[in-house]
Amino acid sequence: MTRNFDAIDTLMEKIKFERKCRLSDDFFYDVIKIYGHLAGRINRAIETLFDMPNYKCWPSVRTFNFVLNLLVNTKQFDVVHKVYIRASELGVEIDACCLNIIVKGLCHCGELDAAYKVSDEFPKQNCQPNVRTFSTIMHALCERGRVDEALGLLERMEKENVEPDAIVFNTLISGLRKRRRVDEGIEVFKKVMLKGCDPNPGTYQEVLYAMLDAKRYLEAKDFMDVMIDKRVNPSFESYKLLIHGLCNGKLLGDLDRVLRQMVRHGFVPRMGLWREILGCLFPDGDCWIILRTRRTNKDEENAQKNAKIEEFGLKEQRRAKMRPAEENADRRNICGRNIFSACCMVTWSFASPGVHGNARFESVRTKYSEFQLQQLQLEVS
């Protein structure tokens, strides 16, 4: 694509002068879209819209709304009103979508009172505010901490027979969560279920984050089970926060179950997370022996192993001089965090389901030690 946008101007002028072509609204919609999205010529897009009657073509409400939305998305709020009031010149009949775009623009620039007034203008334009109207204003209110007003809009929706959707409830739950009103957020979620509205994954995730923020970890664990039954997978961050809370509470049985569930969903615990888990089970610090590549010279066996490690280290230093720096960095990363995390994950996944707590971590430690010795023997040989 040459992106020769000046040639479009030349061609359009030629068409207007010769008047041999009859152009459709779809044609102008595509031209305006090119000016707005590809060329970044917003002013030229506006000029094309108002120049359409000179081509004996009147814009549809779809084309008019596209230009309005383009101005809102590019934050040219002062121009939006100028274009809006000239709709009658183009023979455009204002619809609900057009008013929703105006509401969105006012909310983006913080003019919430004006947005309320526009929502009151719907009946005067023979339109009714829809779920998009209310969800846009609710989002702006929640972003500014005015959650009670947003909840009031939900009551107004019920009075005006506007059916709320998952986006509305997600917005309210998120707003309540940010204000640490967790119980109210859970009540909103229950209302979603009672109304028969189908919550989306974002709804479940917002409720889960609300419970985690409130440090209600056991409730969060049970809610995760509900999510999984609904085939909604919790995020990695959710697992991380939950494991952190269970470690702080020394809830080892629940920790075991959550970690196995995390692995089944394809998430690999990182080094820092394994450190926290092992530190929870071994508060005296004896677990850190599995993170060291050396052993103290307490007996002859350890002394021999250290000798092999020293020999391996010298060989590795010689090899490192012959490898690029990037490859050395990759090897250090693989031989450090990733191998340990993989060992722990695999051992944890395939251990007997009846093994819990310290016994499971002992199997992790044993498996890692065996793996480390095998790697050492392979490299030295």
Keywords:
381 residues, mainly alpha, repeat, 19 helices, Pentatricopeptide repeat-containing protein At3g14580, mitochondrial-like, 71% helix
Topology:
Blueprint: H1 5-18, H2 25-39, H3 42-51, H4 61-73, H5 77-84, H6 96-108, H7 112-121, H8 131-143, H9 147-159, H10 166-178, H11 182-194, H12 201-213, H13 217-229, H14 236-248, H15 252-264, H16 271-281, H17 300-321, H18 325-350, H19 357-380
Helix pairs in contact: 2-3, 2-4, 3-4, 4-6, 6-7, 6-8, 7-8, 8-9, 8-10, 9-10, 10-11, 10-12, 11-12, 12-13, 12-14, 14-15, 14-16, 18-19
- How much helicity do the residues have? over 70%
Secondary-structure class: mainly alpha
Poorly predicted spans: 287-298, 325-343, 346-357
SSE succession: HHHHHHHHHHHHHHHHHHH
Task: Name the overall outline.
Answer: elongated
Count of alpha/pi helices: 19
For the termini, the CA-CA separation is 58 Å
Biggest sheet, in brief?
A: none
Assess the beta-strand content as a share of residues.
Answer: under 5%
Radius of gyration from CA coordinates: 31 Å
Number of strands: 0
Summarize model confidence as the mean pLDDT. Answer: 78
InterPro entries: PPR_rpt (IPR002885), TPR-like_helical_dom_sf (IPR011990)
Protein name: Pentatricopeptide repeat-containing protein At3g14580, mitochondrial-like
Keywords: Repeat
Family: Belongs to the PPR family. P subfamily.
Task: Please tell me about this protein's structure.
The protein is mainly alpha-helical and 381 residues long. It has 19 helices and no strands. It has helices at residues 5-18, 25-39, 42-51, 61-73, 77-84, 96-108, 112-121, 131-143, 147-159, 166-178, 182-194, 201-213, 217-229, 236-248, 252-264, 271-281, 300-321, 325-350, 357-380. α2 runs antiparallel to α3 (42-51) and α10 runs antiparallel to α11. The protein is elongated, with a radius of gyration of 31 Å. This is Pentatricopeptide repeat-containing protein At3g14580, mitochondrial-like.
